[in-house]
UniProtKB/TrEMBL annotation:
PANTHER family: BETA-ALANYL-DOPAMINE_CARCININE HYDROLASE, PEPTIDASE C45. It comes from Lentibacillus cibarius. Residues 115-345 form the Peptidase C45 hydrolase domain. This is Peptidase C45 hydrolase domain-containing protein.
Length: 358
């Protein structure tokens, strides 16, 4: 996976991203143009028009987000509206399709040797070629270490304050023209603490449904909060000394009632993975083992219920544009501010890397 080290103004950061990851940005555009057509029978020209609907709200929220996207467009020699569409990809064509992929965990002391946050990121095999690691040194916001897709400015990672975020897709057939999910992720990482992060996503500020598992390390007391978000409301669960986990369905009965079951798009595999990760965590605790990065990697390598397992592999006779695989797994030590990245499946990664802040 290509590693980018970006710094300066928002536009500078974007331009460096677009220049250094030009191939990955173009691959993202090609992949999502195909995906939108396959999933929603939508042409890219229409996707661009839908992306524009979010412009006013993004500008009111943080104009630096627009500046960074402008920079990417300049560096990658594409249009700004192409990059905007990538960053609104969850809202444009994916609210109506079934949720799929990603298993997230937050593990706090005393059950773990540190404050850990991690997940598998399961998505279309074609997008594996677009993945990049970015270290972002900003002038007016925290330094960030993040794994993302070329052209997308917010995803999974942590900042220099030990604040991290993981993402699980949740599909409900409703959306608004507010802040796209991936820009919500960036706003979380632009925060100095958990309270600021939660404030930035409350009150239906996010345009579509998603699950954000957010945690912050602190040697005097770490904390994790899981937030299920939808355009009609949210539900939170917090722990300081235990664990949280999530897959790709709403756990909140209240939110399910508010949204309406008929508007939810859920696949059966999310329930298998939720049951399995909970069992793996509880078994470890019951065996009186302290949870480590090695143990979390074992969980992320689990093949129970295959092919609907935590560790997802390419299925036979399937297209890279339709098959869901584990593209990477990530484990973040929020006390030490380390990011442990496994590219590909955790059971047999193509590359392993450790990233930390200087």
């Amino acid at each position: 996976m290509k590693a980018l080290y970006l710094s300066g103004t928002a536009f500078d950061i974007g331009k460096q991203h677009g220049t250094q990851a030009k191939e990955e940005v173009h691959h993202s555009l090609d992949s999502y143009e195909r995906l939108f057509w396959y999933e929603a029978n939508m042409k890219w020209k229409h996707a661009i028009e839908l992306g524009k609907l979010h412009l006013d709200y993004i500008e009111k929220t943080n104009i630096a987000l627009l500046d960074e996207m402008e920079g990417i467009a300049k560096g990658a020699s594409v249009s700004f509206h192409d990059i905007l569409a990538l960053n609104a990809r969850s809202e444009i064509a994916l609210t109506n399709n079934k949720s799929d992929g990603c298993t997230s965990v937050a593990l706090m002391p005393t059950i773990a040797e540190s404050a850990f946050l991690g997940q598998t990121w399961d998505w279309r095999a074609s997008q594996s070629k677009s993945l990049i690691f970015t270290n972002i040194k900003q002038n007016d916001a925290p330094e960030i270490n993040m794994v993302t897709e070329g052209g997308i400015i917010g995803k999974i990672g942590l900042n220099a304050y030990g604040l991290g975020v993981c993402l699980n897709a949740l599909r409900a057939n409703m959306k608004s023209n507010k802040l796209p999910v991936h820009l919500g992720l960036r706003e979380i990482l632009n925060s100095i603490d958990l309270n600021e992060a939660l404030e930035k996503i409350r009150d239906q500020k996010i345009a579509s449904s998603a699950n954000f598992l957010i945690a912050q390390g602190d040697k005097s007391g770490a904390k994790a909060t899981n937030v299920e978000i939808s355009p009609v409301g949210e539900d939170r669960k917090t722990t300081r000394d235990n664990f949280l986990y999530h897959t790709n369905h709403f756990y909140s009965a209240r939110l399910v009632d508010q949204i309406g079951k008929e508007k939810l798009n859920t696949t059966e595999n999310t329930f298998y993975r939720a049951s399995r990760i909970k069992k793996l965590i509880n078994n470890t605790i019951n065996d009186k083992k302290i949870i480590t990065t090695d143990i979390i990697r074992q969980w992320f390598s689990d093949h129970e219920h295959y092919p609907n397992s935590i560790c997802r592999h390419m299925e036979e006779d399937s297209s890279e544009y339709t098959s869901t695989v584990t593209a990477f797994s990530i484990i973040m030590d929020l006390n030490k501010h380390n990011l442990y990245l496994m590219e590909g499946q955790a059971c047999n990664p193509s590359e392993i890397a450790n990233f930390h802040f200087n």
